[in-house]
Fold these 2 entries.
Entry 1:
Amino acid sequence: MSESYLELRRKTGERDRSLREKVMSLEEAAQLVKDGSSVGIGGSTLSRTPMAMVWALIRAGRKGLSCARSITSSEGELLFASGASNHILTSWFSQGIVWGVSRIMRLYTEEKRARFEEWSHMAVGMRFRAGAMGVPFLPMRSMMGSDVLARLPEVRQIDCPFTGDKLVLVPALNPDVALIHVQRCDAYGNAQMDGLQFMDIDLAMAANRVILTTERIVSNDQIRRAPDHTKIPFFTVDAVVEVPFGCAPHECYGVYEPFFKHLDMYAGLLRKDAERGIAGYLERYFYGPKDWAEYLTLLGLEEMLDASRRGRRIYDD
Amino acid sequence: MTTETTTKTGVRNYTASELLAVMASRLLEDGQVVFAGVGIPLLAATLAQRLHAPGLTILFEGGTIGAFVEPGQLPPSTNEQRCTRRANMVLSSTDVLLLLQRGYVDIGFMGGAQIDRHGNLNSSFIGHPDNPTTRLPGTGGGNDIASLTQMIVAMKHEKRRFVEKVDFITSPGFIRGGASRRESGLLAGGMYRVVTDLAVMGFDEETRSMEVLALHPGVGLGDVQDNTGFELLVARDLGTTEPPSERELAALRHLDPDKLYIA
């Protein structure tokens, strides 16, 4: 259920919105997310996935998170399989078309161990946008006549009071916390994002708390030299964590592309035996390493260099 | 004009996926604005740009306007940086999807797991949604694209994929046929063409049932019907498509040398 407007305003009013430093570690940021919270996840599919924060939440043993993301890839499989989440609201859920239908998504949804709540891609976006706008819903013209709509009791259909057109109204989504990864931000959380934005700006505005991970922290002076590049304002942000390669093995626009060999290896493990494969993967890459640097070491220097070279290539002629 | 690519012994020198990509690319016209999904649609739209439609504007749900995907650099979804190469603009994914609703898009172009007589697509559940035999990945932007614009669907022609009634309408075609799409509240768009490795199909104006418009080279009407789980209508002026030319196949193989989409 969408919370009431005054409750939303109260929560926002209680946040410290002053221009203050909020840099912390992944472990400290993970403490800001309580079991059972609703969590908006930034990026889409393999792009700008806040993987380091997902990694930290799984390592911290979070349970029962209710997640929402535009399109869900392997991070969703890992959230399900670790028990960190038992509910993902999204428009599409599998590692990626080139790896086929997700065996973990199938296993968890078909055996009803977890819920994959399907909305159209635009509906997810309009729900975050309504949340960002501080209105309880937005009207839209898709999903009508489909069974996607038929399975969504929260949606209302109306006849437009102006034109009489049939419209669907999708309710605002104001997650307890948003996880967003960007290329750079300052210590206050002014975030500059390169390339595809997906729904991240609306998500940041909509959420009651934002944990920002970033490839690098830059000075506030540097941010102020190009304020037009700042996409998320500092007062929506509650934590800033500097995590190089924070999306690995996914992509961060202009910095690195997906680690394809690693993703093929991961898909291979799941193809062989989904449940044991992902358990072994979680053990080796999530629970095993003592910190993020050790995780990156396991991914391997060769793959990191290759992914970086491909990532930076987007700016070459 | 078209070079015959069937060898002297009558054996085709292209795969079903290659045929599908080439036939799909021919349905796009220069100057159109096309919203393309990942896989064969992305590949076919990019192929059309390289061949007969250099002014084709390709949109991706990740937020790209006017992409020119590089040969050998196909993205694993429509949300990675490879999709933005040489693009005119990037928007948020919500805003690029809203362009469909506003009416700026000529053609929506998607693949499909299962389709029915009235062009409804299922990419969500095989079996009953409460107790499915297979949970599929879902709509993505498919529902929005199919709800808001004219659609071309490219898919393999198999009986299990062409069914009387889909188990679940993920992306709406003409719903129950006739005027039911409009009555559902979908005022614009609808299924325009379904292209497969066997034929090109459209939809009857009245009943909104699937109709064979043209057969691919060497394919008989019986082959198409045998691979379809419902009775197809047949156009009075049933045509035959030209086989893929050497130029088309060479351009296609140049775009996807690793056979990421045309496996």
Entry 2:
Amino acid sequence: MYDLLYKKITETISVTEEEFNFCKTLFLPKKLRKRQYLLQEGDVSKYTAFVSKGIIRSYTVDNKGTEHILQFAFEGWWIADLYSFLTDEPSIYNMEALEDCELLLITKPSWDSLLQKVPAFERYFRILIQNNLIATQRRLMGTLSETAEEKYTNLLHNFPGCLQRLPQHMIASYLGITRETLSRIRSQMATRK
Amino acid sequence: MAANKTIAIITAGGGEVVAIANALVQQNYRLLLVLKDSTTSAKILTLVGGGAPHADLEIIECVKDGCWEADMIFIDIPDDAVKEVVEMIKEVATQKIVFSMSGYKSKIDGKGSLRNLLPHSKVVRAINPPGLLGTFIEGDDQEAVQTIYNILKTAGYHPTIASQVPEIKTS
């Protein structure tokens, strides 16, 4: 249950067995079935989640009822609404399991306790947040300046295997394009091969 | 709209389980009744959810899977089964509220108590102090105690938080 978490953590920092055992006592293991929610709009995001198995998507719904996908979190990824998690304010996002999922959840008090008692985790989460900031900036720049085809190519590069696991309409929503545009790009790319 | 919380109830099928399960489904909790005996399961399914046709209720045989999926765990089993159940769930019960419904009937205390067997869970138990009538609940994590208090109260019980009653000495 904790093998992937250990692998991901030790890719970035060194922790002793004792430190990792302490870390394990702070997580709440949770299984979600496909289409169940980890978070719904209006709730406070009480947890940061590590995805051990499955995929979670976070999305918002605009006033026309259209969904906008912000993030997919695959195995080995973390997902949270950091604003809600850190401020205790209600979230504007929904987080839904796209497959049966196994998650490791940590609350803010447990997270604080982990950072305080094992300072190496300060470094781990700092790097994680740094990487998240870079990814967010890249995604923003991509949205502003890339063509639909460039966005799609980047998606395939950043999420290898996503085509097999994500429905077309969700990929289109994540890229901010229509299903028809996505379909056209895919046929054009297939013709060029 | 809040995401529905899932409660796993590990039960042998007797006692208060039907009443409490009915009360929980009315509160829109998703219920996983962890039961190994299929005859009892079928009987309970007919008794629970009658007043709530869209009750989200499922019988599950695997104790570990049921508790892994749950946000909270309610335990209503005899003393002699507790240790075996704890062995199965301890890895997936960390940081979860574990409510010992039959705590007041339990003779297990000290080292063998649920609180000691599940040190990383938020154990709340029902107690029945000598000379006092009613449902009393106690636990180390005050937020967990309050959560159980709210659930029981909404379910129509009249719980009292033991630490708020000076006459009660809890271990």
